[in-house]
Amino acid sequence: MPSIRILTVDDHPLLREGIAAVIEGHESLELIAEASTGEEAIERYREHRPDLTLMDLQMPGMGGIAAIEAIRAEFPDARILVLTTYRGDVQALRAFRAGAQGYLLKSELRKDMLATIHQIMEGKRRVPDEIAQEMAGHAEDDELTPRETQVLTHVARGEANRDVAGALGIAEETVKAHMKSILAKLQANDRTHAVAIALRRGIIEL
């Protein structure tokens, strides 16, 4: 049976080395290429046409979500497994919408990677139980709009409403209206609580 040919994409060399060590320990897997950015991932995919791509989400330049979308747009049959430290349900949802078939926490790499790879090669999806439960728990929630996400990102940086309004070119009253909507959607008690929820769920990044 031929080996599963794998492309790894991560901006941390030590993590790529760790993944390589796991892959080398299994005869059914073969590491054929590595990339450290989203742009490189697309180039390496075109060059090597791997059976499976292991994709980090947060990288300099083009991030993992955009890279997944680009690869899947050009190669609709591409199989992509996200490897990430993000436990948030929103990041997982974005990854699946972009075209990923699996989502694996880096902390579970050695324990679950082999089984997850084989599941995806069999056409199945894979998401950790804790994230699946979080996704199910928020399935009926209203998502933040892109503008609300922008507002909350600025608030998370410690900016006052007036500063947020200036940065986004909108009225201060509009910022207040967005914050009211954000608190309701996230069921948050105040701004600090909203930021904490958004960071935990992967809605915003700092």
How would you describe what is shown here?
- This protein is of the alpha/beta class.
- The chain has two domains: 4-137, Response regulator (Rossmann fold, 3-Layer(aba) Sandwich); 146-201, Arc Repressor Mutant, subunit A.
- Helix content is 54%, strand content 13%.
- It has helices at 13-24, 38-48, 64-74, 89-98, 109-121, 129-137, 146-156, 161-168, 172-186, 191-201; strands spanning 4-9, 29-35, 52-55, 80-84, 102-105.
- It has a five-stranded parallel β-sheet, sandwiched between helices.
- Helix 4 (89-98) links the parallel strand 4 and strand 5 (102-105).
- The longest helix is centred in the last third of the chain and has 15 residues, at 172-186.
- The radius of gyration is 19 Å and the shape is elongated.
- 37% of the residues are buried.
